[in-house]
Write a structure and sequence with these properties.
MM3350-like_sf; Plasmid_pRiA4b_Orf3-like; 402 residues; 15 helices; alpha+beta; Plasmid pRiA4b ORF-3 family protein; 18% strand
Length: 402
């Protein structure tokens, strides 16, 4: 793909005139299809009928390269002309920088990757700003079954739409993910087998930087997260996290490690200052967690902040920076190290409600015993074990945390 981007940018040269709608002229498109070997067919013939190509946007292979060059900052449109970006010229001579610019650009290319037609609008394309970072984080954890990536995308898009043909929509969303993976293979970002997708080493490094994760030899934070007022057992988790992350990313990590479902609002408190999702609906003075790095609130060993999940049930957690270690070669962070205690059920009523739930489930003669068994989604009270920490399940959830 880098060679195609170079060749296209060189073809643009001093500039090319575009159509009134800002597209390549058909004569230029014909020349580029041959030059770049895009695989597009101009004026395709089906049976005895010829379907005339009316716009370069009808040529998906070529359109992908054109939009990729724009998104990577190699070319731009100015007053009806396609022009090279002068300051991007050094990229064309630096393969590593050109690759990273190409990889980063993918997140801004939903329309080119999933073009709309008169009969089909891609749900993956519509929600690509949510799907793309989630896929990268899932792939960053190591080899992933392709079926899991399709399922991840479906879980993201399906709540937003009323599906008239559920199976068909689900199948097409899966095909869109397959199409995206094929582009990543073409770029050299993913190695693909029939069943699994794996980031290449260069892509691992790029994703690591985009996520703010530590590289080998850089500092890594060991933190302990403890649910306040929990007892018998105390519910806690120990994690290794990169100090380069922002605390909105820390929220994602905490939800996965603890076992929360991420269905409620949350807040961080550090030195009396509140941090959370910036919103005009807040009655509180809340700083934007997306703009706050972890070292800004955990500056030194022994520092503590509070994390509150579900402002109704008010699950408060103490987070302490226990130690600053060194990131190891071959380890992808965050890492779940240890922990204890099951995560309480959502909406049980906070720590007091959780203690009451435990009391009722432990007493088969209690008037509310059967009701609470049903509420908790259990076949019997014996299934409930407050001391059980499902380490492997939490580790998998952490690996795919969005």
């Amino acid at each position: 793909m880098q060679e195609e981007l170079r060749a296209f940018t060189e073809w643009v040269g001093g500039g090319r005139k575009l159509t009134q709608t800002g597209k390549l002229t058909l004569s230029d498109a014909r020349a580029l299809v041959a030059l770049l070997e895009t695989g597009d067919e101009i004026d395709p013939k089906i049976g005895d009928r010829v379907f005339r190509t009316k716009s370069s946007t009808e040529l998906p292979g070529l359109n992908l390269i054109v939009e990729w060059a724009k998104a990577a900052g190699l070319v731009r449109v100015v007053k009806g002309r396609l022009l090279p970006v002068t300051k991007a010229a050094p990229l064309l001579k630096d393969s590593e920088r050109l690759w990273e610019a190409s990889f980063t650009a993918l997140g801004k290319m939903s329309e080119a990757l999933f073009p709309k037609t008169y009969w089909y609008t891609s749900l993956v394309g519509e929600e690509f700003t949510l799907i793309w970072p989630a896929l990268l984080r899932r792939l960053y954890g190591g080899p992933v079954p392709v079926a899991d990536l399709r399922e991840l995308a479906w879980e993201i898009v399906s709540p937003y739409y009323e599906m008239r043909d559920l199976q068909s929509q689900r199948r097409m969303a899966g095909q869109d993910i397959d199409r995206l993976l094929a582009v990543l293979v073409r770029l050299g970002a993913v190695e693909l087998t029939e069943e699994t997708a794996t980031l290449t080493p260069v892509a691992v490094n790029a994703v690591r930087r985009s996520l703010g994760e530590a590289a080998p030899g850089e500092p890594i934070y060991q933190i302990r997260v403890t649910l306040q007022e929990s007892a018998d057992p105390v519910i806690w988790r120990r994690l290794l996290v990169s100090p380069g992350i922002t605390i909105d990313r820390l929220h994602d990590i905490l939800v996965a490690a603890m076992g929360w479902e991420d269905r409620h609002l949350h807040l961080f408190t550090a030195s009396g200052v509140l941090y959370g999702e910036a919103s005009p609906e807040w009655d509180l003075d809340v700083l934007d967690e997306k703009k706050t790095s972890l070292p800004e609130v955990l500056a030194q060993v022994g520092a503590t902040i509070e994390y509150e999940y579900d402002l109704g049930d008010s699950w408060r957690h103490d987070i302490v920076l226990e130690e600053i270690l060194t990131a190891e070669e071959g380890v992808r962070y965050p890492v779940l190290v240890d922990g204890a205690g099951a995560c309480p059920p959502e909406d049980v009523g906070g720590i007091g409600g959780y203690e009451y739930l435990r009391l009722v489930l432990a007493d088969p003669e209690h008037d509310e015993h059967d009701e609470y068994v049903r509420w908790a989604g259990l076949e019997s009270a014996q299934e409930f074990d407050p001391a059980r920490f499902a380490f492997e399940a939490a580790r998998r959830a952490l690996a795919s945390a969005g």
